[in-house]
Design brief:
Elements: E1 9-10, E2 13-21, E3 26-32, E4 45-53, H1 58-72, E5 82-88, E6 95-102, E7 106-108, H2 109-115, H3 122-141, E8 144-145, E9 154-157, E10 162-164, E11 171-172
Antiparallel strand pairs: 1-2, 2-3, 3-4, 4-6, 5-6, 7-9, 8-11, 9-10
Length: 178
């Protein structure tokens, strides 16, 4: 899918700009363009993670569905909030899976660490660690293991609150795959 085909609108969301481009897909800042039922209000600004899947890619579809299931079951102040998910068909043969999450202002811990290679002040580090541990303990109590915690998967808001995201490879205790 070309960059041009993603400008404008995806589903019910008007794209505002590209937030990130990772191995699993692109993340866009977007605004809900139409009234919806559920957890997304019209004009609400959100983050949309866009994953292009081939129609025969059952494994990626299963992983996306598992991530949606995991995020739907988590509600904690230190874990990104799930809002919606949908499949979008931008072309006759294209299929795109979209994960709609709350939009946060700030930066990843990885970005923050790169700003000061000498290190962060201990009180800030302790606060971020405590918040991440709180989110991870909560997820574990729900039977979920993140499995990919790293500075690029921890978001620090402009208010200094840590939020864990990217549950792409997370597992439930009941999952049969390792």
């Amino acid at each position: 899918m070309s960059e041009e085909s993603l400008k404008g609108r995806i589903g019910n969301y008007d794209l505002i700009g590209l937030i990130g481009d990772g191995a699993q897909g692109k993340v866009y800042k977007a605004r809900c363009a139409v009234p919806q039922s559920g957890s997304v209000a019209q004009d609400q600004v959100v983050a949309i993670k866009v994953l292009r899947l081939l129609s025969h890619d059952d494994r990626s579809t299963e992983r996306f569905d598992r991530q949606v299931d995991v995020l739907k079951s988590l509600s904690h102040p230190n874990i990104i909030r799930y809002l919606d998910s949908f499949t979008w068909h931008p072309g006759e043969w294209d299929e795109v899976k979209c994960l709609v999450l709350e939009y946060l202002e700030g930066e990843t811990l990885d970005q923050r660490l790169k700003k000061d290679p000498r290190g962060m002040p201990w009180p800030e580090v302790r606060t971020i660690f405590e918040q991440c541990i709180s989110g991870l303990v909560y997820a574990q109590d729900q039977g979920i293991t993140h499995r990919d915690l790293k500075p690029s998967n921890i978001f620090v808001t402009t208010e200094g609150k840590a939020r864990i995201f990217d549950f792409d490879i997370a597992r439930r205790e009941t999952d049969s795959q390792a």
